């Protein structure tokens, strides 16, 4: 398995999908397929003007869509689970409720959503917005690497940020440009190397823009700084999560003995190196199944790509972590 091509390589190829429709069910299915399965769209009042427009680009762990409905709708989404999300209106005002907090998002302020907690949206017909989905593992890995310290998952992000001044303005402009370039057939962002760099800027830019408790003054949730030995092992696992690492190999990468590395991981990560690697792989499989078409992939090939060679043990571990089977996760994308 060491020499196999990792799952990240094809994800740098951008995908562009668009839809215009007056059919509510068709619009709902489009959003469920490209964003989240547990999403419901309910027209409010007179829906004769319903005219959905969705123009979505997907680039690895980042999905950006320009979305509007043309008439007032109510949108409800259960726990996102696998992603963080930002809604940034281009026109109109969106009323958002998430985890007990109400946010009025407009051209001056974006709404932010964590993986846990239902989302309730009052979406007026005049509201057109950028919907930005970033896979949970990608944002958490970026913040973890930037801070070089233990973080709490899911991230305790602020519920909104400013789009007029500061980093929020820059991040929103970057997202708009990325979306426009990927929608164009001949844009520079369609070159895989450029696309990958742009993708990384969107992820790292959000980590630097949104509020979180990992600033200069920790809010009691910040773990101890991780030593370089632990960081080296983590970097190796994130670079090649499908590789069949042994504890001895990871200790060699870290430059310490096996017992020292295991003790350091228990102290600074909260679990053993191989337990961390297993969780990393499971999260990778879950994210890929959650965004894949059931008729294009099967569970076993995704599991093998992420380094699972014993499908029975993999299925049991997956169910223990997510509460459902891998095949159920894939079927929910229909």
UniProtKB/TrEMBL annotation:
<dbReference type="Pfam" id="PF14525">
    <property type="entry name" value="AraC_binding_2"/>
</dbReference>
<protein>
    <submittedName>
        <fullName>AraC family transcriptional regulator</fullName>
    </submittedName>
</protein>
<keyword id="KW-0238">DNA-binding</keyword>
<dbReference type="Pfam" id="PF12833">
    <property type="entry name" value="HTH_18"/>
</dbReference>
<dbReference type="InterPro" id="IPR018060">
    <property type="entry name" value="HTH_AraC"/>
</dbReference>
<feature type="domain" description="HTH araC/xylS-type">
    <location>
        <begin position="231"/>
        <end position="332"/>
    </location>
</feature>
<dbReference type="InterPro" id="IPR050204">
    <property type="entry name" value="AraC_XylS_family_regulators"/>
</dbReference>
<dbReference type="InterPro" id="IPR018062">
    <property type="entry name" value="HTH_AraC-typ_CS"/>
</dbReference>
<dbReference type="InterPro" id="IPR035418">
    <property type="entry name" value="AraC-bd_2"/>
</dbReference>
<keyword id="KW-0804">Transcription</keyword>
<keyword id="KW-0805">Transcription regulation</keyword>
<dbReference type="InterPro" id="IPR009057">
    <property type="entry name" value="Homeodomain-like_sf"/>
</dbReference>
């Amino acid at each position: 398995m060491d020499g196999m091509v990792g799952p990240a390589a094809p994800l740098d190829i951008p995908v562009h999908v668009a839809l215009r429709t007056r059919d509510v069910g068709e619009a709902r299915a489009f959003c469920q397929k490209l964003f989240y399965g547990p999403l419901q769209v309910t027209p409010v009042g007179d829906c004769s003007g319903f005219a959905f427009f969705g123009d979505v680009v997907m680039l690895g762990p980042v999905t950006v869509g320009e979305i509007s409905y043309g008439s007032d709708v109510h949108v409800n989404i259960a726990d996102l689970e696998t992603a963080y999300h930002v809604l940034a209106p281009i026109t109109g005002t969106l009323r958002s409720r998430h985890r007990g907090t109400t946010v009025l998002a407009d051209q001056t302020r974006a709404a932010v959503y964590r993986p846990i907690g239902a989302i309730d949206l009052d979406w007026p017909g005049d509201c057109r917005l950028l919907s930005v989905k970033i896979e949970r593992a990608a944002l958490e890995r970026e913040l973890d690497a930037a801070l070089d310290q233990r973080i709490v998952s899911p991230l305790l992000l602020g519920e909104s940020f400013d789009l007029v001044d500061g980093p929020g303005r820059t991040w929103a402009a970057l997202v708009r440009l990325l979306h426009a370039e990927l929608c164009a057939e001949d844009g520079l962002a369609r070159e895989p190397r450029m696309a990958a760099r742009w993708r990384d800027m969107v992820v790292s830019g959000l980590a630097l823009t949104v509020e979180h408790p990992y600033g200069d003054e920790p809010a009691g949730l910040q773990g101890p700084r991780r030593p370089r030995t632990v960081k080296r092992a983590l970097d190796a696992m994130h670079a090649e999560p499908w590789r069949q690492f042994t504890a001895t190999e990871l200790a060699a990468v870290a430059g310490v003995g096996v017992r020292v590395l295991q003790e350091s991981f228990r102290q600074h990560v909260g679990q053993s190196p191989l337990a961390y690697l297993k969780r990393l792989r499971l999260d990778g499989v879950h994210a890929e199944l959650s965004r894949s078409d059931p008729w294009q992939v099967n569970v076993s090939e995704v599991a093998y790509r992420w380094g699972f060679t014993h499908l029975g043990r993999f299925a049991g571990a997956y169910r223990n972590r997510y509460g459902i089977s891998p095949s159920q996760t894939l079927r929910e994308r229909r």
